[in-house]
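Example record

Each entry pairs one chain with its bound ligand, zinc ion.
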Amino acid sequence: MDNKAFRYRIYPDISQLELILKTVGSCRFVYNEALSAKEAAYKDSGTVLSTYDLIRRLPGLKKQFTWLQEVDSVALQQSIRHLGTAYANFFNTKLHAKRPKYKTKRKSRWSYSTIVINNNIRIGRNYIVLPKLGKVKAVISRDVPEGWKLKSTTVCVERDYTVYVSCLFEYESTPVSYVPDPECSIGLDYKSDGLYMDSSGRCCGSPKYFRKAQGKLARAQRGLHHKKPGSVNYRKQTKKIARIHRHTADQRKDFLHKESLRIANSYDIVCIEDLDMTAIGRKESGLGKASMDNGWGMFVGFLEYKLRDRGKLLIRTGRYYASSQTCSCCGRIEPKVKDLKIRRWQCPACGAVHDRDINAAVNIRKEALRILNDIEIQKVS
Ligand SMILES: [Zn+2]
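Structure tokens for the complex follow.
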């Protein structure tokens, strides 16, 4: 069984939106309450409250805070389960997750999740039926393939009050019997001031509208300084800023989807470097926006599932492979090239002249195919 999520825009009426926001707030309240109960129990008596223990406290809470009775009770349970996952991730040393924190209205996502029980959530032609909300107008932008089973939904309100619902489906995965051809492969080198450079020398920059939106955003933010906090105009301006944010996020996602689709359709094997993005963010903080908003992580995520769906491969080279300092013609390692300012260089051993980024992309492809070859040989022996 495999999972996939579709995201639909929904158009709740005023009373529905009110209830959605109330549910979001109630889930946040229950999450925070469970978090403090868990921490307190541990501090006072060393007891570890399980997710089950915390969910069992819900009826008591509902008696004490009667407004919790108005919202979808499954959503409240789900928010406690999310807390359980947050703790599990925190205690899993491999994940480097942070300790669960209290949610706030200002900083946390405005969302809640609920699961399908007895057909209580249904997708119609132009609506979705959600617990407590009933029929909500929706744009079903993608048809649900036959045999897919709806498992859960997450309702998410953006800061400009547009609302989306993510529907998670379960489906029988059919193994794809496709044999990827190493000849039909490409290496991609992450580029901080674009998206990537590929091993055939094609550079994929990020579209200009990112920068344009940045200017628009800066202007809108300056406009906020002239308005009095709490006033109607102030609120209008924050809404405007939120709208620009969402618009750029949508544009970027759209661009990354198209770019990853193009590659997944054209190549059988895609080779990339396994990067430590948090370290890059730190190192390149001087470069400002460029490196942070080019969305490499999201791009790789899209690429990975699109390739997998087609029976194709994404291969990551090791984190310490010196892709930019190795001559792609003769294999000599030239440590001087470590300096990021060197864009072109000549190999002292074989005389080949290299463009820094193309050379790196070629090496990434070579190294990935070597790794693949090693795996195949191991399989045979
Ligand atoms: Zn060389």
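Residues 2-171 form one domain.
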